Amino acid sequence: MTNSQQQPLQSTSWITEEIFPSSNKNQCIWFNKEASLLTKMIDVRAWAEYVVEWAAKDPYGFLTTVILALTPLFIASALLSWKLAKMIEARDREQKKKQKRQENIAKAKRTKKD
What is the pLDDT of residues 56-114, one digit of tens each? Predict the structure, then answer.
């Protein structure tokens, strides 16, 4: 069977899912099981419109949801920043110790020569 003679996809291979409700309740986003990744991506414009509509209708609920969703990321960021600061302090202490040790060794060699 050549490319031009291939049979079209059966209608049973199509599934529908309503991802985000829109103003028109009859609209659905269609997915094809055999479609590429680009075809399966969510319609960004429809999603953005939904988010804007949600924020306009329920601003306190929207902000609460955003803050709750971002809180773990803020906590992780604070923890990693604290750990990095501790690592930098430890490295600085080690460098100071090494420099002081080198100065003491140089001083001891000068004292032996005299």
Answer: 999 999 999 999 999 999 999 999 999 999 999 999 999 999 999 999 988 888 887 76
Q: What is the rounded distance in angstroms from the CA atom of residue 89 to the CA atom of residue 64?
A: 37
Residue that has been written with the tokens 């990095």 in this structure? 84
Q: Per the confidence metrics, is the pTM higher than 0.85?
A: no
| Position 65, amino acid | T
User: What DSSP character marks residue 16?
Assistant: E
C-alpha to C-alpha distances, 16 to 32, 33, 63, 77, nearest whole angstrom: 9, 10, 31, 39
Q: How far apart are CA 102 and CA 96, in angstroms?
A: 10
- Chain-centroid distance of CA 81 in Å reads 17
Cβ-based neighbour number of residue 53 at 10 Å: 14
Residue 105 one-letter amino acid: I
With vertex at residue 93, the alpha carbon angle to CA 91 and CA 99, rounded to the nearest 5 degrees, is: 100
Residue count of the chain: 114
